[in-house]
Amino acid sequence: MTTATEARTVSDPDQRDAAAGSVELQQVTKRYGDAVAVDGLSLSIQPGEFISLLGPSGCGKTTTLRMIAGFEQPDEGDILISGRSVLGAPPYRRDVNTVFQAYALFPHMTVAENVAYGLQQRRTPKAEVRERVAEALDLVQMRRFADRKPTQLSGGQQQRVALARALVNRPSVLLLDEPLGALDRQLREEMQLELKLLQSRLGITFVFVTHDQGEALSMSDRIAIMRDGRIEQLADADTIYARPTSAYVAAFVGQQNFFRGTAAEGGSAVESEHGLVRGIRSARLAPLADGTPVQAAVRPEFVRIEADAAGGAPTTGANRVQGTLLGVSHLGETMQYLVRLGDDQSLIARRPTPEAPDLAVGAAVSCTWSDTSVQVFPSDDAAAAGGYVAPPTH
Amino acid sequence: MRSLRLPSFALAIPAWTWLVTFFVVPVGAVLYFSFGYKPGIFGTHATDVLSFDRYAEALSPTFFEVFMNTLWVGIAGTLLCLAIGLPVAYWMAVKAPAHRRGLLIALVMVPYWTNFLVRTIGWQIILAPEGWMSQLLQTVGITDGPLAILYTRTAVLIGVVYNYLPLMILPLFVAFDRVGPALREASKDLGANRVGTFIRVTFPLARPGIIVGLLLVYIPLMGDYITATVLGGAQGNMVGQLVASQFQAAQNWALGSAMAVLLILVIMVSAAAIGFLLWLVSLPFRVRNRVVLEATA
After folding, report:
1. Where are the transmembrane segments (chain B) (predicted)?
2. Which of A40, A125, A215, B4 has the most crowded Cβ, counting Cβ within 10 A?
C-alpha cells in the first residue's frame, strides 16, 4: 500500500529499506544558556530495536528524545533518521511519532478523531482514515471507546489512545516519553508487557525514555544509562545488571551494597574496615594499585544471611561479615533484611521468600557472598557514597 | 452541638441584592417609562396612558440612521479589536518569553488605568486637522490636505478600538495560554504545520475565550457614548448619545427609555445573530473532520 510515510522517505528504495527505522545521533550537544543538557552524545539505534534511555531527571534523556522528535534542535552534532539528516526539519516533516508523558490528547476531539488527526493532516482519503483508525483502536483494544472524549477515559485508556494515535501513522520510529509514569503499578506492568509485544509484532523502532529501571530492564533490547547529558553505559539488560561499567550504573540499576576502602591484590579486592571484602576486578577497569580508594559493590540478592554460628570460619573464596539484624521486610517474592555492620555501614540481604530464614530483629547474623558477585569500582562516585544505595522508588 | 448552617445560596445574597437594587429595578423602570410619554415642558415622563408610540418615534428615519451607525461601529470595532488583539494575545501567550509575560500584561493594562475621558480627548489632539499626525502625513506625502478624520465615524472607530482593545487581548491571552504547549507539540508531531495546528487545535480550544472577548468588547462598545461624543461630532453619532440627550437635555425620559430598550434589544439580537453565523460558518469544518466508525461487530 502506498502511503504518505513512504512518500516522505528517500527516493532510492534500496537505501531506504536498509536504513528505515534507524536513528543515529552523532556527537549531539544541546545547551540551555550555560547548562549543558546533552553533551556530545553519540548513539546508533538499529531498525526495529527497542532501546531505553534510562536515567534520573535532568540527565538529558528527555532532551535527547525531543531532539529526535524535532521539538529541539541540537547546538552541535547531527541526527539521522532512516539514514538521512533531519537537522533543521520541523517535527511535522519527520517520520517519527511521539507518545507524550501526559498523553496530550486533544480534549475537543473524540478518541477516533484524535487517532485520525495524523492521517487527516496527510490528506488520507476518508474511507482509508476510517479503516486505519478502526485498525489502530483494535490494536490497543479501544475500539468501543471510539466516540468518547478523552476526559471520559481512565489514565490507562488515555495511554492506549495516545499509543494508537501515534502508531496509526506507521512511523519508522516511535518515541515514548515516560508514557507509563502516570499509571498505577499493576496497570504499568500490564502495559509494559503489551508494549513489548506490540513492538515485536509491528517491528517499529521504539525509543523509550524512563527513569524507572524496572521498565527499562523488562522491555528493552538495549538500555542507555544516561548521566549529565552523556551515555554512561549502553548494553542489554543482562550486561547492565551483571557487569555495570561504573559505580553509577551499578547503583542506578537494581540495588547495591557498597563497601568503601582501598584496593588490595591489584584491584581485585577491597580492604575495608569490615574485614577483607574479596572481589573480582571489574572488566572495564585497568589494574588498580594497592591502596587506591575504591568501592566494592554487591547486590542484596547475592547476599546469604543466617543466624551467627559462633566460631564458624569463613569459607575459602567467599566473603563473610557479621552484624545485627535491624529489620525484616516482606517484599512479596523476596524477604529483605537490613543488617547493621558498623556505625555508618549497613548491608541489605534479600532471599526468595520460600527459602528465607526466620530471624528475629536484634539477632546477631552473619552474611556471606561469593567473590564472583562483587564488582570493584574506583571510588570517585558521589552517587555511591554511603553503605548502600536505595533503588529509585517505584 | 449543632452548628448554624446557612443554605448555600446565601453566598449569592450580596450579589443578588446589588443586582436587583441597581440593575433589575432600574431596567424595569426604564422599560415601564418607555411605554409612557412626556407630559409637558416641565415633566420628564408620565405613565397614566401606556402605548408603543415612543418606539415608533425612536425608529423614525433620523434615529434609525443613528442605530445603523451604532451597529456599524459596534461590529467593525469589535472585529478590528479581534483582528488586532488576536495576534498580540497569541504572541504573548505562545511566543513571548515566559518571564516577560507580567510586563507585557502590564503594558496592555497601563492605558486602561488612565481616565477613559482623558485618553479619548488625547485622540482629539492626534487626529486634529492641524495636529502632528496630520502634519506628519502631509510632510511624508501620504495625504494632500489636512487630516479630515476628527468628528467622523472613522474617528469614533479608532477611538473605540483603542479604548476596548485590552478587553479583547486579556481573555484571548488567557484562552491561548490555557491551551498549553503540549497539545501544539502533539499536533506538530502528528504532521500538522503551524497553520494547521492553529486551525485545528489552538483556535477550537481557545474559542470560549474568543467569544468572551467578543462579548466584552461588543456590548460596552454598543452602549458607549463618551467616545462618540468626544470624537464623533455630528457625523459620528451613536445611540448612547441619543439616550443621554433625551434624558439630560430634552428631559424626555419616555423617549430616552424607549431608545435604551431598543439598544438593549439590538445588542442581544445582533450578538445572537453573529454567534449563529459563526457557528454556521464553522459547521462544514466540523463535519469534514468528524470521524465516525461503523459499530463494532
Report:
1. 12-35, 71-91, 103-126, 155-176, 197-219, 253-281
2. A215
